[in-house]
């Protein structure tokens, strides 16, 4: 009996999750993209996958209206979001093609929606100060105060991704060697990396661990409601409250950009930054240069002269 598209997607996910060992966050992204595809184009099947059907999927996404926040209506999706969906579907359709379930990958004849990044991604000093002031002034109890300070100092001085920080375990912190280990199973690159810990981060981590002594969870950043790691929903709720109380519209990944820009400003060493961020290619690291402030390059320009030309 021929398998339907859902059965084949389940096999694809089983292989990717347990053989290729993709991260839990990536698993969720694949499942969400597939669910969105079947919701927007319910008639899609293994027999009618084509460039026309996939084009219709992206057209629906681009034209649909969504209500977000407090009744705000938005139309369409960002180009970066379209690119994410494209990559996830391309992997699945490629898998179907290799296993001869479909004759060809429909996305091979379609242009990749390459994202255009024009907005400033890093946070300025004043914005960082407002966020930390909101933590200091609005934490409900001492445990939350110390946990949130440790969490955001880790983000600011280590450049961690969301999944990396939420899956950190106590054993990943070497206080004696002043090293933090990001394990391969939680890293987007699939590579283990070790980061030198800033002395300020160590200070807040020690303070936080003293406060959470009654908890037994192996995870470092834990929920105040249960003895387990802080979930993505819990983290998003925290960010939402801090946005409201600080007046700064930010998302967690901006702390990674802030770390990158300020490290480059101090070290001017993109090779070191590549290693710290856990990138496989230095081209990925160079993407962070797009938000380098113009004023940071002014002295370099002024230092040039006719006499100093080669």
TrEMBL record:
Keywords annotated in UniProt: DNA integration, DNA recombination, DNA-binding
Membrane-spanning ranges: none
The UniProt record lists the keyword Thylakoid: no
All residue ranges annotated as the Tyr recombinase domain in the record: 118-303
GO MF entry, a single one: DNA binding
Positions of the Core-binding (CB) domain: 3-97
Alphabetical GO biological process terms: DNA integration; DNA recombination
Cited InterPro entries: CB (IPR044068), DNA_brk_join_enz (IPR011010), Integrase-like_cat_sf (IPR013762), Integrase_catalytic (IPR002104), Integrase_recombinase_N (IPR010998), SAM-like_dom (IPR025269), Tyrosine_recombinase_XerCD (IPR050090)
Protein name per the record: Integrase
Species of origin: Niastella populi
